[in-house]
Amino acid sequence: MTDVRRRPLGDSGIEVSEISLGSWLTYSGGVERDQTEACTRAAFDLGINFFDTANVYGRGASEEAWGDILPDFPREEIVLATKVYFHMSKTDHGLSADQISKQLDASLRRLRTDYVDLYQCHRFDVETPIEETMEALTAAVESGKVRHIGFSEWTPEQIRAGLEVPGAAKFVSSQPQYNAIWRAPEAEVFPLSSENGISQIVWSPLAQGVLTGKYEPGSPPPEGSRGSSGEMGNFITPYLDDSVLEAVARLRPIADEAGLTMVQLALAWVLRRSEVASAIIGASRPEQVEQNIAASGVELSSDTLAAIDEALAGHTIEGQRLGSNAREGVRHR
User: Fold this and answer.
1) At a CB cut-off of 8 Å and minimum separation 6, what does 55 contact?
2) How do residues 87-115 score in pLDDT, each as one tens digit?
3) Is the dihedral of CA 19, 24, 30, 32 positive or negative?
4) Which tens digits make up the pLDDT trace of 223-238?
5) What is the distance between the alpha carbons of residues 3 and 17, in angstroms, rounded to a whole number?
């Protein structure tokens, strides 16, 4: 088994592999069932213990896929995370007490487990009082169906509002988009979270695959890539600007000089921050899992980090920004 390093998940007492397997655009329908199983088994065999999904991925398809596969592994050796918020039907969405209870039970049925280790608010619900949301999450923890709670793409104001609800269960994780191009969480979300014992488990650490270098300026996306997929390509569009791709191409000699692949360079860049507990990867082939986890334990020199900044200058997103599909504001009772 490859030695994938572990990091603390906030104040939870749980340690997670610093490379984790996600199922957003892959196991929700973009990848066939046998590939899903092969990638999941490869991840576990190679030392990944943290598996992240959501009820909305394929409208339950991703949870069902892992519900078929993960029971083959010792439950106590897996850290299983899912999420709630987005539409499961015209009427089923949000973070009301009724929805949290209903969607949690549905997720547990699909995942074929009695509990999840981490239950995350996929976005902030500006229509539901924060007190109701936090009380419902706390009830889920107290019921034993959830061990710990987290959030994804909440603004600093929303994070503070959740933390300030008296008697509520404590957040242990934040899941923002974060990579060498999209650096926005560093400004406020990272420090605020750290002050409150909350780790980052980041999505899109490879910028939807762009930081692998597979997309070339002036050329169509390679056949079979995420950028060429109608099912999986929507979120990659902002990264496919030729000027961005030209900047990414300047990273290749930096990776070569450091003795790393482009994937290892990008993941090591994310993992250079102690606030990050894990970088969530997607994989459609087992060999991609192996290539990604090779970044575990890699430490980039100050010269390499400076060279990355220079190569991407003018193309990084910095300062507090609203995450994708996120909304500002907080409603109170």
Assistant:
1) 63, 82, 83, 84, 86, 88, 103, 106, 107, 110
2) 999 999 999 999 999 999 999 999 999 99
3) positive
4) 655 554 555 455 677 7
5) 10
8 Å CB contact between 116 and 146: yes
Residue pointed to by tokens 């929805």: 99
Assess contact for 79 and 16: CB atoms under 8 A: yes
Question: Look-up: residue for tokens 């490869």?
Answer: 42
- Report all structural domains of the chain as residue ranges with CATH numbers, in order of start: 6-213+230-237+273-298 (3.20.20.100)
Separation between Cα atoms, residue 217 and residue 225, nearest integer Å: 15
Distance CA 149, CA 117 (A): 8
- Six token digits for residue 223: 């056949």
* Active site positions, annotated: 57
Q: Name the residue among 9, 98, 99, 114 with its Cα closest to residue 55.
A: 99
- pTM confidence score: 0.94
- Structure-token pair, residue 232: 């999986």
